[in-house]
Amino acid sequence: MSLFPLFQTILYTVSTALLYPVVILLIILSVWLALYSGGFISEWIKRRQFKSNVLIADHLSDIQKEGRLTPDIASVIPLHIQDYAKELKKVIDNNDLFTEERVEDLNQRKEHTLFRELNKIQWIVRGGPSLGLMGTLIPMGTGLAGLTQGNMAQLSSSLIIAFSTTVVGLALGIAAYFFAIVKERWIIDDMRKIQLITEAMTKSEKQLNLKIEDT
């Protein structure tokens, strides 16, 4: 007795059962990406407003002297960087034995948080088209099975599902890829600002005096 027909039946049953989860996931990702695009547009508008001739590098001495962000700098950077500067000031004000380590930990946690948000979008870049491909191939099997029985209505229904999932999956991938590119550029720029702010706020007067004496 050949086991191949049994294996074929099992695989067909499993693949057919996966159609509903795939379609549901595509719908969920579409809704999530639509909501994300609203927040993305809002952030893009705010960052356009933040663009200014004021450069953090030109105000490092002011940040170092005050030990916090100056009003002119705080007004042209995103809110989450302002929150980081406030947390950094608390760590520095504690001034314990492990202040340097705590500053490094805060910096790394901030970087991890920013890139974790980016990873969500990057997953859709690959996951969207992959789910779309699965949603294409699964109903094609059902449609071909119906074609062998002369059931053209079943074939037509399967093709509609197949092409629809393909389009949705590709659309998700393209949109997510665009968001990922822009988001990565924002994160790199934010991390540059965070590094400058951290260096300025952690540079003590003693270090500055020693540098002046060496020169």
Characteristics:
single chain; 8 helices; mainly alpha; disordered C terminus; 215 residues; elongated
Number of strands: 0
Average pLDDT number: 83
Please give the radius of gyration in angstroms: 27 Å
Quaternary assembly: single chain
Structure description:
The protein is mostly helical and 215 residues long. The chain has one domain (40-214). It is built from 8 helices and no strands. The protein has helices at 4-17, 19-50, 60-66, 71-74, 79-94, 99-148, 152-202, 205-214. The chain is elongated and about 80 Å long. It starts with a helix and ends with a helix. 19% of the residues are buried. Mean pLDDT is 83; it is low at 208-213.
Outline the secondary-structure elements:
Layout: H1 4-17, H2 19-50, H3 60-66, H4 71-74, H5 79-94, H6 99-148, H7 152-202, H8 205-214
Helix pairs in contact: 2-6, 2-7, 3-7, 5-6, 5-7, 6-7
Task: Give a brief outline of the structure.
This protein has 215 residues and is mainly alpha-helical. The chain contains 8 helices and no strands. The protein has one domain (40-214).
